[in-house]
Amino acid sequence: MKPFLPLLATCIALASAPVAAASFEFVPAPQADLNRMYRVDKVTGEVTSCQYGLQESGGGIGQTVCFGPGEGAGAQAPSEYGLVASRHTREAGVFRVNYRTGEMSICFVLVKKEQVVCTQQAKPGAEGASDAPLTGPAPGRAGASATPAQGGRF
Questions:
Q1: What is the DSSP string of 128-142?
Q2: CA distance 114 to 108
Q3: Reduced to 3 states, what is the DSSP secondary structure of residue 5?
Q4: Cα 132 vs. chain centroid, distance in angstroms?
Q5: Predicted confidence (pLDDT) at residue 71 exceeds the cutoff of 90
Q6: Is this model's pTM higher than 0.70 or not?
Q7: Contact between 95 and 84 (Cβ < 8 Å)
Q8: Residue 21 class from Cβ within 10 Å (0-12 exposed, 13-18 middle, 19+ buried)?
Q9: What are the residues facing 107 on neighbouring strands?
Q10: How far apart are CA 28 and CA 95, in angstroms?
Q11: Which of 3, 14, 63, 108 has a CA positioned 20 to 30 A from the CA of residue 134?
Q12: Exposed / middle / buried, residue 69 (Cβ in 10 Å: 0-12, 13-18, 19+)
């Protein structure tokens, strides 16, 4: 029985040690002709992105081009974050979701600034959301959205 005690003590020590869990989640952009991958830190919500780029000097296999966090894409309040891509094949951005609060924001790459940016986090029922119209053209647009209706016949 005595050899069992050191083994039991080792198992307890390993079980109580901090677990190095995967701290990032990766999701490809839904745009069908874009080779971009987004990454979110699952605790801080920081979003970055990388994609394949052609190498300008001849003979190379290309290079990985990465975009760091810009406005709204930096670390948020600690929580449980993830990324969700829409099924819209022309969409280059992804949704950053907070699984604990239900808040969401849209994140995308601003290529000219070479950074990922995200809209402010929001959720239905948030302050001011009830004042927004549920249908009709988006504010600041002259007409209907360029995005076709989903699920209907055309």
A1: TGGGS-SSSSPTT-S
A2: 11
A3: helix
A4: 25
A5: yes
A6: no
A7: yes
A8: exposed
A9: 94, 118
A10: 11
A11: 108
A12: buried
* 42 closest CA partner among 92, 95, 97: 97
Q: Are 118 and 47 in contact (CB under 8 A)?
A: yes
Using an 8 Å Cβ cutoff, are 41 and 48 in contact?
Answer: no
Question: How far is Cα of residue 13 from the mean position of the Cα atoms in its chain?
Answer: 35
Task: Assess whether pLDDT exceeds 90 at residue 83.
Answer: yes
Determine phi and psi for 32, rounding to 5 degrees.
Answer: -60, -30
The half-sphere exposure of 71 on its side-chain side, counting CA atoms within 13 A, is 4
Res 101 pLDDT > 90: yes
Give the largest Cα separation in the chain, rounded: 81
Edge-to-edge order in the sheet of strand 47-53 = 24-28, 36-41, 47-53, 63-69, 115-118, 104-110, 94-98, 81-84
Tokens of 30: 């839904």
| Angle at CA of residue 49, ends 46 and 55, nearest 5° | 150
Alpha helices in the chain, H assignment, sequence order: 4-16
Cα–Cα distance measured from residue 88 to residue 146, given in angstroms and rounded to the nearest whole number: 13
Report the alpha-carbon distance of residue 119 to residue 108 in Å, rounded.
9
List the structure tokens of 118: 């995200």
Q: DSSP E strands: which ranges in 54-134? A: 63-69, 81-84, 94-98, 104-110, 115-118
